[in-house]
Design a protein that fits this description.
Number of domains: 1
Distance between the termini: 68 Å
Radius of gyration: 22 Å
Structural class: mainly alpha
Shape: globular
Order of helices and strands: EEHHHHHHHHHHHHHHHHHHHH
Largest sheet: 2 strands, antiparallel
Helix content: over 70%
Strand order of the largest sheet: 1-2
Length: 472
């Protein structure tokens, strides 16, 4: 049956359908120990609980284990060497901890330990290099943000050097990103949404909805591309770039090529916006808070957005206002849509698309098996941290809770994201990918134009008075 796959791999029926995306049959309750979604939850929630216990007991152990060279601001290799020589034991302990956690869980999921361990050690060492690059004092001047550098370096290595296929055992893209998203929830108390205020929430919601729907419409209705590709592209442009694309790819069962197409477009436009928005803002003399909000509305990756907001804030003489505007719009306003879009597209894929492809509507349990469980982990971690920090005022939160509880989790989350970005690059071999063609590029770029234009209008003209008050 060439060109067909058993429908049980996708729809839960005994029919076969033409060119249905290949997807494993539901595992039943075995998935609680065989799927990365669940292990990402166990790991993310586990780290959060350990961080809380250490914080309440006044212990600095997790803070020490969350070490990375990203905040050094070193100016000479001697400073960097001194840092590593003084903290070598911590880095070795940290690497061992990651190896034990990821090694045991991947072994249970069926990954060969003798392949995973050496592969992960390579990944860890490369990750240290990425953080070290980001810790250079002039890194922001050249937009050398660790996640973007990790992705680009990974792509170069994978497509210039012949890497043995077994190394992919340690490059667990989805596992790392899902773990990072759960940890993102732990650093994302629901109360932050309230502090963002109605302006930030309205602007973020309007932009997210509009951008996603424009890209999806262009991809599927104008160019006739696969609905799953349209969903991945739309979310990548509307929410949190790579993280959003990967979350939706998992939710709808998108092909690997679709994910890499979206990631490539996100990274390209994220790099463009690092230069474009600060340049235009400088030419127009925009208030730093307004420019930061525009960056947060129209940038496609957190790392790139932070770099753009920080760069313009320094040029305009108020870095804090620019970063605050960016954070309210992007990190709080738009990134919360990762879970929302994952849930919506998972339901649409299961109840509509698969019924159209297979002729049979999946039952209620099928919806549950297909739902991306790490989204639940994100929400649980967020609600848990909200309850824990609810009794602290703003001053105490910033002075006590943030450095003692939140920042160690942020650092570990950063490690997970660097693992992910490197893994994407190291497993993306252009010779193995089908040519994406110009249609996805045009569809995504149309969304970029709409996004940037609307973001400018809302940030500068509609809500300019609100954003200009930041940092005062």
């Amino acid at each position: 049956m060439e060109g067909k796959v058993p429908a049980t791999d996708y729809c839960g029926t005994k029919e076969c359908v033409e060119e249905a995306p290949s997807r494993p049959a539901p595992m039943g309750w075995r998935e609680i120990y065989l799927k990365e979604d669940w292990w990402a939850i166990y790991l993310g929630i586990g780290i959060t609980v350990i961080a809380l216990a250490a914080f309440l007991n006044g212990s600095s152990i997790l803070k020490s284990l969350a070490i990375n060279p990203g905040g050094l601001k070193w100016t000479s290799f001697g400073q960097l060497a001194d840092h590593f020589s003084q903290n070598l034991n911590l880095y070795l302990l940290q690497m061992l901890s990651w190896l034990v956690i990821f090694g045991i869980s991947t072994r249970i999921m069926g990954i060969k330990t003798d392949e995973f361990v050496p592969s992960f050690i390579i990944l860890y060492v490369l990750s240290i290099v990425m953080f070290a690059i980001g810790g250079w004092a002039d890194a922001s001047k050249y937009n050398l943000e660790p996640p973007l550098v990790a992705l680009i370096l990974g792509l170069i290595i994978a497509n210039v050097v012949h890497l043995p296929k077994w190394l992919d055992s340690g490059f667990r893209v989805e596992y790392y990103i899902k773990t990072g998203i759960v940890l993102l929830g732990a650093t994302f108390p629901i109360t932050l949404i309230i502090t963002a205020g109605p302006v930030a929430l309205f602007q973020a919601t309007f932009i997210s909805l509009t951008t996603c729907l424009v890209i999806y419409f262009m991809a599927t209705k104008v160019f006739g591309l696969d609905k799953r590709l349209g969903a991945v592209l739309g979310t990548g442009g509307a929410v949190c770039g790579v993280s959003g694309s990967m979350a939706i790819a998992s939710a709808v069962g998108a092909k690997k090529d679709y994910l890499y197409t979206a990631v490539t477009l996100v990274v390209v436009w994220a790099l463009v916006m690092i230069f474009f928005i600060p340049f235009v803002s400088k030419a127009m003399g925009l208030n730093p808070g307004i420019a930061g909000a525009w960056v947060g509305t129209s940038e496609f990756a957190d790392a790139a957005g932070f770099a753009a907001a920080s760069a313009y804030g320094k040029m305009a003489g108020n870095e804090n206002a620019a970063i605050q505007g960016f954070t309210l719009m992007k990190v709080i306003g738009r990134d919360m849509w990762i879970g929302i879009w994952s849930f919506i597209f998972a339901l649409i894929a299961c109840l509509k698309w698969e019924k159209e492809e297979c002729g049979t509507r999946p039952d209620a349990m099928e919806i549950w098996w297909r739902f991306p469980k790490f989204v639940i982990g994100f929400l649980v971690a967020s609600l848990f941290m909200t309850a824990v920090t609810a009794g602290y005022g703003t001053a105490d939160f910033n002075k006590v809770v943030k450095p003692g509880l939140i920042l160690p989790i942020v650092s570990l989350r950063s490690w997970a994201f660097i693992f992910c970005f490197l893994s994407i690059g190291l497993t993306t071999r252009f010779r193995e990918l089908k040519a994406a063609g110009v249609k996805p590029f045009i569809a995504f770029t149309t969304g970029v134009v709409v996004n940037v234009a609307l973001g400018f209008i809302l940030s500068v003209y509609v809500f300019g008075g609100h954003w200009s008050m930041l940092g005062q």
